[in-house]
Amino acid sequence: MQQLNLIDEIQRLCVAHHFEDDIKEALERLYASFHSDHDDNLYSLALRFRLLRQEGYNISAERFNKLKDEKGNFNECLIADVRGMLSLYDASQLRIRGEEILDEALAFTTAQLSKSLETGTITSIPLAAQVSHALKQQMRKNLPWLEAKHYMMHIYPEMASHNKTLLKLARLEFNLLQSMHRKELSVLTRYWKDLGLAAKLSFARDRLVECYFWSVGSYPEPENCLARSILSRLIAITTVIDDVYDAFGLIDELKVFTDAFERWDMSCINQLPQYMQPSYEALLDLFREVEDELKKQGRIYRVPYAIESMKCLLRGYLKEAQWFSQKYVPTLEEHRELSLVTCTYPTLITIAYVGMGDVVTKETFDWMLTNPKIVEASSIVSRFMDDIVGHKFEQKRGHPASGIECYVKQNGASEEEAYEVFTELIVNAWKDINEECLKKSMPKQILEVAFNFARVMDVLYKVEDSFTLAGKALIHAITAMLIDPVREN
């Protein structure tokens, strides 16, 4: 058990890459003995299950049925074991479709842990703090480095058994990574200022720092420096282009704009209205720069995939603009098909792979053309979380009907009923993400990018559209990841 606790601590602190072989060997042994081991201690069982599922071992959740009484309810005696209940709560977040036992476990632990906090029955202050944080932000859905920072600052040092050397390593690693990210952001800020899009187009969102955070959240590792640079600039420019389609462009001009992108030729720029020219030029210049860099690396085959994905997104933007100009409220099915494109995730995830290393191959991009389940699920999380928290603001701003409006009109339902339906769609999308991580259809680093895109949404969109509104969740996350270092308590 001591070894499993250490593995958990190492992974929570985001230093597992230093111990990959040792952890892999230990988990192989754990996997081999999981079904023959009859230790049904709540904490131990849940921890073993989570450690294996996190690493892609497709083990059965049936063992948790032993925690129930003869009536099919979880044993009341479990409630007093707060550490075990928290372990089960964390484990249940890795459930896939059809695992009713884990659905029940999540509901049971959420209710009982919340009650324990409210009544003050958790006597250990560090444990109470850990429970409170877990209920606010599920570990599975949090960005790993955000979770690690909270853990190394507020949880791990308060544990009597904490390893001071391990904690020191984690602090050093976080601060070194943050320093690298700050330098990258400084370079990108100069690029964005020199580009001048924000100054030229006052109606558009100026979100370079927020776009860089999205990239850091997707892949923070040092080896993905080029990938972050490409993705950050692409998101920032695409945000401006989105605002041209959403907030400013006339429909006839948007058709010309879209046609220019279809032709992907700088000579088209003179056919565009003045306000469209800066973003058109910026996007084509970015891709030309990326093409030059990838040509040096022998990876130029990636660029056509990225361009075609970008064109697909812009066609979607035009279709939404046409719906809005016609005051057309699509069916929920029509909305879903289009909005899972215009949520931008299929395009952004494709382009996220462009600057990565040898783990990405032509097979990766061909796989993206098949609309992979994990990318679709991540897009569902993005689209419907945004719809739930942002649809009222978007309707005031002047925006095509969101999924909420489509559902209400099609079913004669209330907004509250629509929220419930969309929340269930998001829950199932997370289950699909978990299942795809078990299938290992692609290398772990590839799947992790799509997974992290969904995590960014959960961090930023639980309460409001923090990206558009520069909300509290975004400010807190940026401060934690990019501004405040980890200091010794």
From TrEMBL:
Cofactor: Mg(2+)
Record InterPro entries: Isoprenoid_synthase_dom_sf, Terpene_cyclase-like_1_C, Terpene_cyclase_plant_C1, Terpene_synth_N, Terpene_synth_N_sf, Terpene_synthase-like, Terpene_synthase_metal-bd, Terpenoid_cyclase/PrenylTrfase
CDD domains from the UniProt entry: Terpene_cyclase_plant_C1 (cd00684)
Terpene synthase metal-binding domain segment(s): 193-432
Keyword entries, A-Z: Lyase, Magnesium, Metal-binding
Pfam families recorded: Terpene_synth, Terpene_synth_C
Start and end residues of each Terpene synthase N-terminal domain: 2-135
Keyword Lyase part of the UniProt annotation: yes
Any one of the GO BP annotations: diterpenoid biosynthetic process
GO molecular function per UniProt: magnesium ion binding; terpene synthase activity
Regions annotated as coiled coil: none
PANTHER family recorded: (-)-GERMACRENE D SYNTHASE, OS04G0344100 PROTEIN-RELATED
Family in the record: Belongs to the terpene synthase family. Tpsb subfamily.
Protein name: Uncharacterized protein
Native organism taxonomy: Eukaryota, Viridiplantae, Streptophyta, Embryophyta, Tracheophyta
